[in-house]
Each structure stands twice: as C-alpha cells, then as structure tokens.
C-alpha cells in the first residue's frame, strides 16, 4: 500500500497542489490595490519634505557643534551630514 500511496501523493502535490498555490498567489497579487498618481505625488512631496527637514536638522547640529565643541562628542547625530554610517534609523 505504501508503494502505491507515496507516488500518488507526490504526483498530486506536483500537478495539483503546486499550481493551485501559484495561481492562488498570482490572483491575490493582481487584486492588490494599485498606487494612484495622487499617491505618487504625495510620496514625492513627503520625500522632498523629509530631505529638507534633514538638511535643516544637520545645519542646526553643525551650528550647535561649532558653538559648543564638547556637544559634538556626546551627540552621535552631530556628525558629518554626508556620513550615513553614524546616523540612527
């Protein structure tokens, strides 16, 4: 009985189970909501705002570090704004 059941299960999984799984996730992927043009514009605006705010913060950090030299050693975010290795995410 085992000699017959094992090959039938393997063939069933290969030709029925695997395609069903693939087609299931393909249809889920196609039903996923799409990003509209308004969403793209909003993301672009948010990205530019984040970049401007990051530039402002780095400017303030450089000013404070110039006024108080010991502040730079205690604050890791006061490093070079182009050096992304010391920044926290």
From TrEMBL:
Coiled-coil ranges from the UniProt annotation: none
Keywords in alphabetical order: Membrane, Transmembrane, Transmembrane helix
InterPro entries: Phageshock_PspB
Transmembrane segments: 6-26
Key word Transferase present: no
GO-annotated biological processes: phage shock; regulation of DNA-templated transcription
Record-given protein name: Envelope stress response membrane protein PspB
Organism of derivation: Sphingomonas panacisoli
Gene it is expressed from: pspB
